[in-house]
Design brief:
Length: about 350
């Protein structure tokens, strides 16, 4: 049966004063206008406290708290971080004692090794895939095979083997290598290989090596790192660490935990984190108060779910969307200035 609807009488609406309404914005939260030549910290403080700017500041605070409490700060790195020239940023944060562990997929390790040994990396796939020359350079798989052969039955893992070989061979650009820097600093560097995803897997010398076995060692090592991300009481942080001295701060959370930053990995490292988290919790670690962050150019499903969503408490996962070549220098400068 058809109904005859008459227009609503808007004159009968109940209204109230705007002064009684709650608001998400007020003029006290406007962006500042630092003058020409202003210091970085003044510029950072001028950012309006919303969305991405607020997430960056929360991440910096979480990292500062973690290091003052001697909790791990892990950077899980996709290959793009190396390919856009951000390796020195990660190396610097390792040397400063701010980043205490790194995890990477196989592609990141390949680009790191090529930068360290040749000063160049990243071929034009659209060209080389057509003539069968894609991934067919000799030197890179040979380096991996030799590093793995020298590692032998050692339990240090693939990341340590490559870092050690870069230092042993005195690779000319090793100062830009995350793996070499981590090895020199005694910082865990783990590589998580998915067989068939990297160019070196096409070469017999690597296919016949202990690549998978050493990567499996690295998985168990990153499980131990994640297990160590659990909380300590704030009272225990009033002691000197590599980055200074923390004093008791009223009103701050009593439990300070570690930080996991997924930087540019869309699939492999978010999956590795999920499994490492499961292992650590299964073995008894209290990881409810860890902070996680995803830094990438776009938002992918697995980082959103595995890293900043279902793995941590609401509000503990931070999504920071932007280009690595902009966001990582900004993050590093904020850490250097504020810690």
């Amino acid at each position: 049966m058809r109904k005859n609807y008459t227009p609503a009488d808007l004159s009968k609406l109940k209204t109230y004063s705007i002064g009684k309404r709650t608001h998400k914005f007020d003029v006290q939260r406007l962006a500042g206008l630092p003058p020409k030549g202003a210091a970085f910290r003044r510029w950072l403080d001028s950012l309006p406290p919303f969305l991405g700017a607020e997430a960056v500041k929360k991440l910096v605070a979480a990292i500062a708290d973690a290091r003052r409490a001697d909790r791990p700060v892990v950077f899980a790195l996709g290959a793009h971080v190396v390919k856009v020239g951000c390796s020195p940023i990660v190396c610097d944060l390792i040397e400063r004692g701010i980043v205490t562990a790194v995890a990477m997929n196989g592609a990141t390790a390949i680009h790191d090794v090529e930068v360290a040994t040749f000063g160049q990396t990243s071929e034009e796939v659209a060209d080389t895939i057509r003539d069968g020359s894609f991934g067919m350079v000799r030197e890179t798989p040979a380096f991996f095979a030799e590093a793995i052969r020298r590692a032998g039955a050692r339990t240090d893992g693939l990341g340590a083997a490559l870092g050690e070989h870069l230092l042993r061979t005195r690779s000319p650009y090793r100062r830009y290598s995350i793996l070499a820097t981590a090895r020199k600093a005694g910082v865990p560097a783990t590589i998580h290989v998915a067989i068939g995803t990297d160019t070196i897997h096409m070469h017999q010398s690597v296919a016949d090596s202990d690549l998978a076995a050493l990567s499996a060692v690295d998985f168990r090592r990153i499980c131990s790192v994640v297990a160590d991300m659990g909380p300590v009481r704030a009272a225990k942080t009033a002691r000197r660490t590599k980055i200074g001295k923390q004093t008791a701060v009223k009103g701050r959370a009593a439990r300070l935990s570690g930080v996991w930053c997924n930087v540019g990995s869309a699939v492999i490292l978010p999956e590795v984190f999920l499994k490492a988290l499961a292992v650590a919790r299964n073995l008894g670690s209290d990881l409810d108060d860890i902070t996680t962050a995803n830094l990438d150019m776009i938002r992918h499903y697995r980082p959103s779910e595995n890293v900043i969503g279902r793995s941590v408490k609401k509000g503990r996962g931070l999504q920071i969307t932007g280009h690595h070549e902009i966001m990582l220098p900004l993050l590093r400068q904020a850490l250097v200035e504020l810690i």
